[in-house]
């Protein structure tokens, strides 16, 4: 083998063979560090990780034999051992020669177990790097000594800093290829230092290495005597871990699950996010703010005297106070804030771009709420750090935007100057309500005072009183369907019949509303959502006033119809699907709109160049091919007649 | 007073967090219990996660009818001790066709395990299944998420995985879709052994060395566990001191010659060994280097 394999500093075979119990004692008290490696495609990430595995003896002989064979067959090191092949997992990417997803690798020394996330350096994969960085205590930023600081280097550093990683290592790799040149190394460090300062990185640890040759990985390089700092492995073994620092913060635990095996035991299970807890500690349950004291910390191995950040425990209280999944148990004298509007940084992770105003699930800790994102204040160009104006966020875009949740949530600001970030109560994900995909990750900056100063004003005459006077029960009959399906015609017919039955009704028609309330809105996806949101709010006010409201809007997106449904009490939103095939609706073309759309004179027209998402569980469906408008109206009235 | 958590304490806390999170969000979870050491650790973690309640889900053993006798014994004992319901599923079609590891090779694993698992999940309508797979076992597993989303036909799409950030898990899915959950994804083989030792987790005695009847075939040392083992002409079982690093169907699982009779000795041997864990299993060798990735796309756990 032509490769110089330097002797590992971690020759523990002797101890393992001679005194296994002494070795195990040593390893029982190991701590854990999670880190990521990032760099451009050819900076040698996989080689570095392969080298760390190799040096810490995590490669077995059969894997080594396979590695030697693979290196000759598909390796990129001219037949010499290609450590990258150890790390590049999936078949497709092995052929392409690039890493395309986040892969986790493990190795350990006497002091620590390491979990390393191998994250790709390819432009379109910001998503993967942010994912890998979210659980990391440290980031190794790899630079090819021949190329110096590249655009990608800056991007990776920005992302690592954004996600709150405090320990950054600038690993100037491939020093063997520039003859271990100290001047070149220092030039790169100086250039990086200037950049780091410009984006707010206050400290980083530079080191000259060769992943291929093993210089300064686990043993000090004998070719770079001018470098007196630690080896990469020494540094990884010594840096602070976030979870230890979290213990110094006030106590917080998100409740995952209420443990109630019998009437004598009631415990609240969760993983401690910050601080420490012991029996007798005063706590507060948020939101709500009820207080009690901790009575027990229960585990299978016996009760604990104390538990600390990072542990999963079950806590019991001295008093019977309400507490359930989604609540946060916190130190009584230092509780976190509660709010429903925030400024946030959002990293978009889905192929479908952000739709402003659409309702997404937001998961923060164990809290799951509905949330909408406002138009972003700006998007960050991750290559130049410039702030750009934008109306949305596309895959891999990072922007700052305000978020509104449908109820108040318990939170803390994500970034903490100098301290470990508040990942549990400051980091969140957004989930698409239809596809259930995780579409974004976000970090809370602060709450907006707006929501705190506007309180709901209670009035004495409530919605039941309004409806009772009219001798009816309020409802919203939501007609949805393609343009030309017959929504307005049928809704008009239904209203006439209800009117004859002495019902107090009001018909909100799509075209009519666009003449007034919504005349500032166009037909883009975002405008259509805002159109429906406003109509939903108006319909809700009218329902509060005791009316039976009929609305006739194409309302093409399920998510927005569900958003209006969620505004109203259960049972009051009645979705009526006016089901007309596209060719039939287009054949009618009462307003000549389909013709214009086909000619390209009308953009974003539903059914032509904008989708219509048919209801999956509409309360009522009418087929206008089989029924006349009068028959459809009579059918609908029969369905809703139990309404008073 | 700061108490620094050890790596095993952190791995344990992470696994418990995952178990609870999925139980809170899934409609009908189940734990895949294969009776191996990883399953043993996972079961122990579940008992810790929900103590003093028993784990609020059943154990499912997808049985190939070809497991070691000692595995069936421990399986029944652990189900009784944990107070959990034990569901055993055997693919009726595989039984009817007499599918076995001697005549059918890869088809044996496909029908009994892959198909059997799908059938069992469909039969009971489970929407979340815990499994004891670890990322360090095999290359394609290193890239799988902790919560791995499966289509209604149980397929896995490695190119379309949900990003997993911080300790936030998205367990949402549509009707018919399901998730596979791997609470000990971040554990290594050594972590598993150390945890078993520190927590006195019961494991199948076959992991310890003992004198057992064996034959050597295709470079693998196989144990003659019952009289269904077909000896080839001239083959005579020989008593050897052996143990197993991994347990599956007995005619497909290679033993190693060993005298390690305590956990410390097993760990010692593991650390000094020169072959990696799955080497003893025939499954990874199918379809070249991409064997497991292919199986997973087809719905193998």
TrEMBL record, chain A:
Membrane-traversing stretches: none
Domain of life: Bacteria
Ranges of residues in domain Tr-type G: 30-244
InterPro entries xrefs: APS, APS_kinase_dom, CysN_GTP-bd, CysN_II, CysN_NoDQ_III, G_TR_CS, GTP-eEF1A_C, P-loop_NTPase
GO BP, one annotated term: sulfate assimilation
Catalytic activity of the protein: sulfate + ATP + H(+) = adenosine 5'-phosphosulfate + diphosphate; adenosine 5'-phosphosulfate + ATP = 3'-phosphoadenylyl sulfate + ADP + H(+)
Keywords: ATP-binding, GTP-binding, Kinase, Multifunctional enzyme, Nodulation, Nucleotide-binding, Nucleotidyltransferase, Phosphoprotein, Transferase
Residues at the active site: 555
Positions with a binding annotation for GTP: 39-46, 118-122, 173-176
Binding site for ATP: 481-488
Any GO molecular function: adenylylsulfate kinase activity
Family: In the C-terminal section; belongs to the APS kinase family.
Function: With CysD forms the ATP sulfurylase (ATPS) that catalyzes the adenylation of sulfate producing adenosine 5'-phosphosulfate (APS) and diphosphate, the first enzymatic step in sulfur assimilation pathway. APS synthesis involves the formation of a high-energy phosphoric-sulfuric acid anhydride bond driven by GTP hydrolysis by CysN coupled to ATP hydrolysis by CysD. Catalyzes the synthesis of activated sulfate.
Protein name from the UniProt record: Multifunctional fusion protein
Automatic annotation (TrEMBL), chain B:
Biological processes, Gene Ontology terms: sulfate assimilation
Span list, region Disordered: 278-301
Gene3D superfamilies xref list: HUPs
Cited InterPro entries: PAPS_reduct_dom, Rossmann-like_a/b/a_fold, SO4_adenylTrfase_ssu, Sulfate_adenylyltrnsfr_sub2
EC number: 2.7.7.4
Keywords: ATP-binding, Nucleotide-binding, Nucleotidyltransferase, Transferase
Reactions this protein catalyses: sulfate + ATP + H(+) = adenosine 5'-phosphosulfate + diphosphate
Enzyme class: transferase
GO molecular function term, any single one: sulfate adenylyltransferase (ATP) activity
Pfam families: PAPS_reduct (PF01507)
Domain Phosphoadenosine phosphosulphate reductase: 29-254
Family designation: Belongs to the PAPS reductase family. CysD subfamily.
NCBIfam families on file: CysD, PRK05253.1, PRK12563.1
Record-given protein name: Sulfate adenylyltransferase subunit 2
Organismal lineage: Bacteria, Pseudomonadati, Pseudomonadota, Alphaproteobacteria, Sphingomonadales
């Amino acid at each position: 083998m032509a490769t110089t394999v330097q002797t590992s500093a971690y020759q523990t075979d002797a101890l393992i063979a001679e005194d296994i119990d002494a070795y195990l004692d040593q390893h029982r008290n190991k701590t854990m560090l999670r880190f990521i490696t990032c760099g451009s495609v050819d900076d040698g990430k996989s080689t570095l990780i392969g080298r760390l595995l190799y040096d810490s003896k995590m490669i077995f002989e059969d894997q080594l034999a396979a590695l030697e064979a693979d290196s000759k067959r598909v390796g990129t090191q001219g037949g010499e051992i290609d450590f990258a092949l150890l790390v590049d997992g999936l078949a497709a990417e092995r052929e392409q020669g690039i890493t395309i997803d986040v892969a986790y690798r493990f190795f350990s020394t006497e002091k620590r177990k390491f979990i390393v996330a191998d994250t790709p350096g390819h432009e379109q994969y910001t998503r993967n790097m942010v994912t890998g960085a979210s659980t990391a205590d440290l980031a190794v930023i790899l630079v090819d000594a021949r190329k110096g600081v590249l655009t990608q280097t800056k991007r990776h550093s920005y992302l690592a800093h954004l996600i709150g990683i405090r320990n950054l290592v600038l690993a100037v790799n491939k020093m063997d290829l520039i003859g271990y040149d100290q001047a070149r190394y220092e030039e790169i460090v100086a250039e990086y230092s200037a950049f780091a300062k410009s984006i707010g990185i206050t400290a980083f640890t530079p080191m000259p290495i060769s992943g291929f040759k093993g210089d300064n990985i686990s043993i000090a390089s004998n070719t770079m005597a001018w470098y007196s700092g630690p080896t990469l492995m020494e540094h990884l073994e010594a840096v602070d871990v976030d979870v230890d620092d979290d213990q110094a913060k006030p106590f917080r635990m998100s409740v995952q699950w209420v443990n109630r095996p019998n009437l004598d035991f009631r415990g609240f299970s969760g993983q401690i996010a910050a601080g420490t807890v012991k029996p007798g500690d005063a706590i507060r349950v948020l939101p709500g703010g009820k207080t009690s004291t901790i009575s027990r910390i229960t585990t299978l191995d016996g009760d604990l005297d104390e538990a600390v950040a990072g542990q999963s425990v079950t806590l019991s209280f001295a008093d019977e106070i309400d507490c359930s999944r989604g609540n946060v148990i916190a130190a009584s004298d230092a509780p976190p804030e509660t709010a429903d509007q925030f400024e946030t940084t959002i990293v978009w992770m889905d192929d479908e771009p952000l739709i402003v105003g659409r309702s997404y699930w937001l998961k923060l800790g164990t809290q799951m709420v509905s949330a909408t994102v406002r138009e972003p204040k700006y998007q960050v160009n991750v290559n130049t750090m410039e702030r750009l104006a934008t109306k949305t966020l596309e895959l891999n875009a990072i922007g700052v935007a305000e978020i509104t949740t449908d109820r108040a949530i318990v939170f803390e600001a994500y970034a903490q100057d100098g301290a470990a970030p508040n990942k549990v109560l400051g980091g969140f994900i957004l989930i698409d309500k239809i596809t259930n995909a995780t579409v974004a990750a976000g970090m809370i900056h602060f709450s907006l005072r707006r929501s705190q100063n506007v309180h709901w004003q209670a009035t004495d005459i409530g919605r039941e009183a309004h409806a009772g006077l009219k001798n009816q029960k309020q409802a919203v009959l939501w007609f949805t369907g393609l343009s030309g399906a017959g929504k307005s015609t049928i809704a008009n017919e239904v209203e006439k019949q209800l009117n004859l039955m002495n019902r107090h009704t009001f018909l909100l028609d799509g075209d009519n509303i666009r003449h007034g309330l919504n005349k500032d809105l166009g037909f883009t996806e975002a405008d259509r959502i805002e159109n429906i949101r406003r109509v939903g709010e108006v319909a809700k006010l009218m329902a509060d006033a005791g009316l039976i409201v009929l609305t006739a809007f194409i309302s093409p997106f399920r998510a927005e119809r569900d958003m209006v449904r969620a505004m109203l009490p259960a049972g009051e939103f009645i979705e009526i699907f006016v089901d007309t095939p596209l060719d039939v609706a287009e054949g009618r073309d009462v307003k000549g709109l389909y013709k214009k759309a086909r000619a390209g004179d009308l953009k974003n027209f539903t059914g032509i160049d904008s989708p219509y998402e048919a209801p999956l569980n509409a309360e009522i469906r009418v087929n206008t091919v089989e029924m006349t408008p009068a028959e459809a109206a009579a059918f609908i009235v029969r369905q809703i007649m139990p309404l008073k | 007073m700061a108490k620094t958590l050890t790596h095993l304490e952190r791995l344990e806390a992470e696994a418990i967090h995952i178990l609870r999170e999925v139980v809170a969000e899934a409609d009908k979870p189940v734990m895949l219990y294969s009776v191996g050491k990883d399953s043993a650790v996972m079961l122990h973690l579940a008992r810790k996660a929900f103590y003093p309640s028993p784990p609020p889900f059943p154990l499912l053993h997808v049985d190939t009818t070809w497991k070691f006798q000692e595995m069936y014994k421990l399986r029944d004992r652990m189900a009784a001790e944990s107070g959990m319901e034990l569901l055993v599923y055997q693919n009726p079609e595989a039984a009817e066709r007499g599918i076995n590891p001697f005549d059918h090779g890869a088809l044996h694993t496909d029908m009994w395990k892959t198909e059997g698992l799908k059938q069992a999940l469909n039969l009971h309508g489970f929407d979340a299944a815990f499994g004891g797979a670890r990322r360090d076992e095999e290359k394609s597993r290193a890239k799988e998420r902790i919560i791995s989303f499966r289509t209604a036909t149980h397929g896995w799409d490695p190119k379309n995985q949900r990003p997993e950030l911080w300790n936030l898990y998205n367990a949402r899915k549509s009707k018919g879709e399901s998730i596979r959950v791997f609470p000990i994804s971040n554990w290594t083989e050594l972590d598993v052994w150390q945890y078993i030792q520190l927590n006195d987790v019961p494991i199948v005695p076959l992991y310890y060395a003992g004198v057992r009847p064996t034959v050597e075939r295709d470079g693998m040392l196989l144990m003659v566990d019952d009289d269904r083992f077909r000896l080839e002409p001239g083959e005579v079982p020989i008593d050897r001191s052996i143990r197993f690093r991994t347990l599956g169907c007995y005619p497909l699982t290679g033993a190693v010659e060993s005298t390690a009779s305590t956990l410390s000795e097993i760990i010692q041997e593991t650390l000094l060994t020169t072959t990696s864990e799955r080497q003893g299993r025939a499954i990874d060798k199918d379809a070249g280097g991409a064997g497991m990735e292919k199986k997973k796309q087809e719905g193998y756990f």
